[in-house]
Amino acid sequence: MTFVKDVEARGTHHCETTALGVLLRHEGLDLSEPMLFGLGSGLSFVYWDSKAMPVPFLGGRVKPFELTRNLAARLGLTLVTEETTSPRKAWENVAASVDAGRPVGLQLDCYHLDYFRTKVHFGGHVVAMYGYDEHEVYLVDTGPQGGAVRTSRAGLARARAERGPMTGRNRSFTIALPERPLSWQDQIIPAVRECAGAFLAAPIANLGYRGIEKAGRLVPGWLLRAAEPRRDLPQAALLMERGGTGGGLFRALYRDFLDECASLIDDGRLRTGHRLYAEAAGLWTEVATLIEKAGESGDAGHLEQAGVILHDLSRVEKDAMEVLRQL
Predict the structure, then answer these.
(1) Which of 295, 288, 278 is nearest to 309 (CA)?
(2) Known InterPro entries for this protein (predicted)?
(3) 118 — pLDDT class (breaks 50, 70, 90)
């Protein structure tokens, strides 16, 4: 049995920030989950649909692993990433890190993890690994999934090797602080401005505030779009509100990030952004509730209401990001 010493298994809301928190605390840098999310310019929006999906996916963050890359670049971290198609090499990569006394991040498909409570395929899930024995591995996942957890080595191998949307090729990664760490406080305004600029200038209409507007037009038709509305719509709502988003499709995390920033930097634009994202977080929770009710009742009126709120959300978030871009 091999374990990394002094790992704090603090499971928070979102998988990638949970894993980043474990790795960075082990290196001596302890930042809140909202701060990690915000410094990684993690907030976004995507309306994603394909024929293979039971209903479209509403995503509230940048694509998997982009947050980690953003954070590493912004803080001058050494990010070492390994990918391989070889199961043997994939295991050697992570075991070597644990053997050396360093926790390692893994991107995988959560469907194959023994402890996972909702059995859905999602190839962008991220965990931190800090130990293993002959049969099992010891991981840190989000609080809702149990925080400090364990799964079989066979299940982990299947999760890491899964192919499909958002998967990595047995991706693993480690993080190290530079000899002279940068001031993370100095990176707050660049991170906010970058996030706002990307949100406002998204290249296609499925992204950013235009994507939210598009969702407002299309969500009212989801009862006809869904293969099994009573199953598919509540599942979509669950992923939006409680599937590692921190509530409000990540807007609650960004609200708390801006609140923390406003306590460090005296700028009215940060306070305005915080107020607007507090409003947005509540509205996104309403949308998820209405989608769930529509699936349970078969009443399209709930989806019509959700569409109206999404139109409002597009405006609220555009206003917020236009203010924050001016920092």
Answers:
(1) 288
(2) BtrH_N, DUF4872
(3) confident
Q: DSSP assignment of 43-89, as one string?
A: EEEEEE--TTSSS-EEEEEPPTTHHHHHHHHHHT-EEEEE--S-HHH
Read off the pLDDT of each residue in 46-71 and give the average, rounded to a whole number: 94
* Residue-wise pLDDT tens digits, 193-243: 999 999 999 999 999 999 999 999 999 999 999 989 999 999 999 999 998
Which residue, chain included where needed, has tokens 């001596």?
28
How many residues are given for the chain? Answer: 327
CA 276/CA 85 separation, integer angstroms: 45
Residue keyed to tokens 């390994």: 82
**What does the domain layout of the chain look like in residue ranges?**
2-30+78-176, 184-324
Partners of 151 in the β-ladder: 137
Cβ-Cβ contacts under 8 Å for 169 (sequence gap 6 or more): 83, 84, 85
SS3 content of the chain, % helix, strand, coil (to 5): 55, 15, 30
Rounded to an integer, the average pLDDT of 264-290 is 98
Strand partners, 42: none
How many whole angstroms separate alpha carbon 300 and alpha carbon 304? 6
Are residues 40 and 70 in contact, defined by beta-carbon separation less than 8 angstroms?
yes
Confidence band of 53 (pLDDT split at 50, 70, 90) = confident
Q: Report the CATH fold assignment for 2-30+78-176.
A: Cathepsin B; Chain A (3.90.70)
Give the CA distances from residue 117 to residues 18, 123, 141, 243, 268, in Å, rounded to whole numbers and listed in that order.
17, 16, 12, 11, 42
Task: Supply 94's token pair.
Answer: 């992570």
